[in-house]
């Protein structure tokens, strides 16, 4: 799916972290979590460090396996993962009813996959906001390659301070919070509910797909061994395998959460400020 290869994965691994510091960054990142002895208070006070370490460590894996857009999507039968992701980005542009030339802000924009597709689909100028420097530099490079660098850009900023990894809220709580903040909610829905293809299917080990081969059990097994070899010969920094391990654990958790219907990455709402 993604055009990035093994060497891109290895060279991007660690993002802005010095290659010699990747192993200690993995250690520190893991220790933020309860299963590694971490405390909620540290996650909150060091929120920015935790998020930045995470995205420095995982971005090249995401790009290698998932592509330039790091989100899930409602998916029809017969649609590839890539098609469903692009359609979701077009859906967002349609819902916002944007007109050519308008300016749009994408908060938490990753490396800008959604932003580029949105801008090309709707002829708008999109600014991506992100607190991770590595993703911004990667996004700028990809904007240049895609030819949208004159109309789209990035700003490095923090949108939330001191609230790292709060408990996952119920969608009803999100709706309440929107209303409390004074928004008028036009419509809202968990788009995962009637998705003909479950959002977590690409990560489900019992599923096989040629078009998203790198996400399948065989693809992940091959990536694991490739990362092991790259780390062994020194082409990937020390600690790379541990990043792959915690991503594997995350993928398993997502699939389980999806199957049990206790987690959704697809809660959509359209809200506006009252006139
Ligand atoms: C799961 S990624 C999604 C990226 C993008 N929306 C996409 O679909 O490709 C979440 C993004 O939010 C950014 N982010 C997380 N916390 C942030 C914060 N407090 N301030 C700004 N950006 C943040 C991360 O750096 C990352 O780029």
From TrEMBL:
InterPro entries, A to Z: Erg6_SMT_methyltransf (IPR050447), MeTrfase_SMT (IPR030384), SAM-dependent_MTases_sf (IPR029063), Sterol_MeTrfase_C (IPR013705)
Pfam family, one: CMAS
Protein name: SAM-dependent methyltransferase Erg6/SMT-type domain-containing protein
GO BP of this protein: methylation; sterol biosynthetic process
Classification via CDD domains: AdoMet_MTases
Domain SAM-dependent methyltransferase Erg6/SMT-type, chain residue ranges per copy: 54-274
Species for this entry: Cannabis sativa (Hemp)
Family: Belongs to the class I-like SAM-binding methyltransferase superfamily. Erg6/SMT family.
SUPFAM superfamilies associated with the record: S-adenosyl-L-methionine-dependent methyltransferases
